[in-house]
Amino acid sequence: MTAPTGTTTTTGPTAADRVRQAVVLVGALVAVAAAAVGSGAFGGQPIQDAAGGALSAEATVVAPGTPAFRIWSVIYLGLVVTAVVQALPGRAADPRWRATAWWVLASMALNALWIAVVQAGWLWGSVVVIAALLVVLGVLLVRYVRLPRTRTLDGVVAEATTGLYLGWVCVATLANVTAALSAAAVGDLGLGASAWGAVLVLAGAAIVVAVAVRAVRRPVVAVATGLAAGWGLAWIAVARTQGPLVDATVATAATVAAAVAALVPVALVVLARRRR
User: Fold this and answer.
1) Number of folded domains that form the chain
2) CA–CA distance, 231 with 227 (Å, rounded to integer)
3) How confident is the model at residue 47, as a pLDDT?
4) Which residue ranges run through the membrane (predicted)?
5) How far apart are CA 48 and CA 236, in angstroms?
6) What pLDDT score does 257 carry?
7) Which end of the chain is more exposed for a tag (fewer CB within 10 A), N or C?
8) 165 in helix, strand or coil?
């Protein structure tokens, strides 16, 4: 007999499930602690000072202001809670955790690796790592959308955390690539820094809208992605209105992009619910 279309079958927990729960929990705690230490949260060199300051708030026109990085405290907390929840009794054989838990751990490991690479001064290496992180978060998004929730708590925790993580990393990827190009002295590529900055922040908002369209069936992850991206884009706008790298063009474009990123996912979710 086969299961009806759109449903999942669950077998009892296996030894591999128990190992997954333990490894993901311990690995998550280690990865988050390593990332926090490596980023300078407990002393040492802050990320904005690494790689010759290439990722500081004044390095490029698409660099978010320093306060934007406070979102990491929320993301780290969400990742730890996610790892704890997947290790709770009764979750070992959960089909959704079976499909996503290892990817959650991979995302944390890649974040810690990104920090190590940046601290080593390898900017183009950091671009490769953050691109891999973006892919991993994309896989998580697809799986959360495709697989039904088995528990509301688990779904909300995992989806909210992944959404915030993905939204922030979308903005961080733009800043990371731009920082690497700037450090490589590639020039303004014909358009000039202001025009390119405006194009990039608006492209970031467009990516978030595309994510929201794909994830509209999972309002938590769709809205969380938009809020985190909107946060990052808003701080780009703030950073371009003060400090040594003022740019009215980018500030205006980033403000518009932040509004689009934060509000369009909410609107899509509301419209989707009204159609049901």
Assistant:
1) 1
2) 6
3) 86
4) 22-42, 69-88, 100-117, 123-142, 163-187, 193-213, 220-238, 250-272
5) 15
6) 98
7) N
8) helix
Q: Which residues pair with 43 in a beta bridge?
A: 41
Q: Residue 6 domain-assigned?
A: no
Residue 188's pLDDT is what?
Answer: 66
Assigned token pair, 12: 């009892």
Task: Look at residue 1 and tell me if it is in a domain.
Answer: no
Q: Is 137 helix (H, G, I), strand (E, B) or coil?
A: helix
| 168, pLDDT greater than 90 | yes
Domain assignment present for residue 13? The answer is no
Using the structure block, give the residue that is written with the tokens 């955390």: 161
pLDDT of residue 90: 92
In terms of DSSP H, where are the helices of 39-94? 71-86
User: Six-digit token pair at 111?
Assistant: 């974040």
**What does residue 267 show for φ and ψ, rounded to 5 degrees?**
-65, -40
Can you give the pLDDT at residue 6?
Answer: 46
Instruction: Tell me which H or E stretch contains 69.
Output: none
Instruction: For residue 20, give both structure tokens.
Output: 């997954």
When computed from its CA atoms, the radius of gyration of the chain, rounded to whole angstroms, is 19
Mark residue 13 as left, alpha or beta (left: phi above 0; alpha: psi -120 to 50; beta: remaining): beta
At 187, the pLDDT band (50, 70, 90 cuts) reads low
Please tell me the distance from the alpha carbon of residue 253 to that of residue 174, in angstroms, as a whole number. 14
Q: Which has the closest alpha carbon to 65: 227, 234, 196, 226?
A: 234
Distance between CA 149 and CA 93 in Å, rounded?
A: 13
Query: Which uninterrupted H or E stretch holds 40?
Result: none
pLDDT in tens, 53-70: 888 988 899 999 999 999
| pLDDT tens sequence across 196-217 | 999 999 999 999 999 999 999 9
For residue 109, what are the contacts with CB-CB under 8 A and spacing of at least 6? 27, 31
Containing structural domain, residue 242 = 18-275
